[in-house]
Amino acid sequence: MKPFTADIISTVEFNHTGELLATGDKGGRVVIFQREQEVCTEEQAPAVVLGSVLQVLKFNLPSFQSKNQVHRRGEYNVYSTFQSHEPEFDYLKSLEIEEKINKIRWLPQQNAAYFLLSTNDKTVKLWKVSERDKRPEGYNLKDEEGRLRDPATITTLRVPVLRPMDLMVEATPRRVFANAHTYHINSISVNSDYETYMSADDLRINLWNFEITNQSFNIVDIKPANMEELTEVITAAEFHPHHCNTFVYSSSKGTIRLCDMRASALCDRHTKFFEEPEDPSNRSFFSEIISSISDVKFSHSGRYIMTRDYLTVKVWDLNMENRPIETYQVHDYLRSKLCSLYENDCIFDKFECVWNGSDSVIMTGSYNNFFRMFDRNTKRDVTLEASRENSKPRAILKPRKVCVGGKRRKDEISVDSLDFSKKILHTAWHPSENIIAVAATNNLYIFQDKVN
């Protein structure tokens, strides 16, 4: 059964502690899951949470960690759901503005409330998510229904009291950052100073202060005077995790630019330029399309940058600009299928990539609901499948293999029978544990290490 377009998940993001997980979908909704802290025994099977928006399944993840590591079980259950963006219409340009959530970014928790940024193509919103389990009673100027009383009827003064009530989780928009982007926003990134963040569209990157909604500062502008001379667009951007003056952005030409905001107010001149020389023997009609970078991520240490293009994931050292230090083939077997992938527009799919908490393993998605993991230390890699049909709660995910021509073994799948409508574009990794979230169309899968 084909899912409703509005239910298709468009972004997944753990918060800084990993206790909360947020997803955004094409219908403009944000669903937040909270980790329950109870410890499961062997007899207790993880619950399957079926929501009207998402279906959340828990399985076990083959571990890249040592067997002595202590595992803490805890289920992720729906904590809050709210409508973040609504469809709009730009009457000046006669353009419909989709409600689809492009990105979600959490702010570090400073008090009992949680804060997150969500964006569609044009507008970024800052949301406050807070709990309320008490309500005030005993107003002097209002009656119990909240209506104002006639001051002449007030003969005594009451001391208001707080009464317990059922726990309510409220999501309220605290700031709306609008009217700053002509083109579609593809990235938002919170700065390490936690006072500013940036939003990037195809041709410009803007710097915002969290307290100022009516003004942003343009820090990158690659729009040419004549749009016919346009040769590349910005595809992703991210701040350095520790240095608030440094950020990177990637382009559709397969290049990455590192910029330093201390050098100049407008960062049109990069500090470093990362590009891998093209092998002339591999040149083809599709070379430019498949070299376009769809995602860029700093490692937690800040020493490396990871980029994802159509066929590969690359790891770059900030101190070496001429070539990546590691290249991982995600689905090289699709090289012979590029013509049909171009015809069905799959070649333009934008896959994301993520680091694990220690920067030792990287993960990215593929087709047929497959996702790939690469261990940087052992150079092992594994293909896993996020699918309801062949996975049961507490089952161990089995590695999958794709067969290219020749005889096919029983446990292999032929490259010709891959389903390109099932794709893993969005994934997230818990900041400190081996727990991953994988968005497969309208299903969210949460996997974790096997508990011995």
UniProtKB/TrEMBL annotation:
One GO MF term: enzyme-substrate adaptor activity
CC per GO annotation: protein phosphatase type 2A complex
GO biological process: regulation of chromosome segregation
InterPro entries to which the protein is assigned, alphabetical: PP2A_PR55, PP2A_PR55_CS, WD40/YVTN_repeat-like_dom_sf, WD40_repeat_dom_sf, WD40_rpt
Keyword entries, A-Z: Repeat, WD repeat
Entry-linked PROSITE patterns: PR55_1 (PS01024), PR55_2 (PS01025)
Lineage: superkingdom: Eukaryota
SUPFAM superfamilies linked: WD40 repeat-like
PANTHER family recorded: PROTEIN PHOSPHATASE PP2A REGULATORY SUBUNIT B
Family of the protein in this entry: Belongs to the phosphatase 2A regulatory subunit B family.
Official protein name in the record: Serine/threonine-protein phosphatase 2A 55 kDa regulatory subunit B
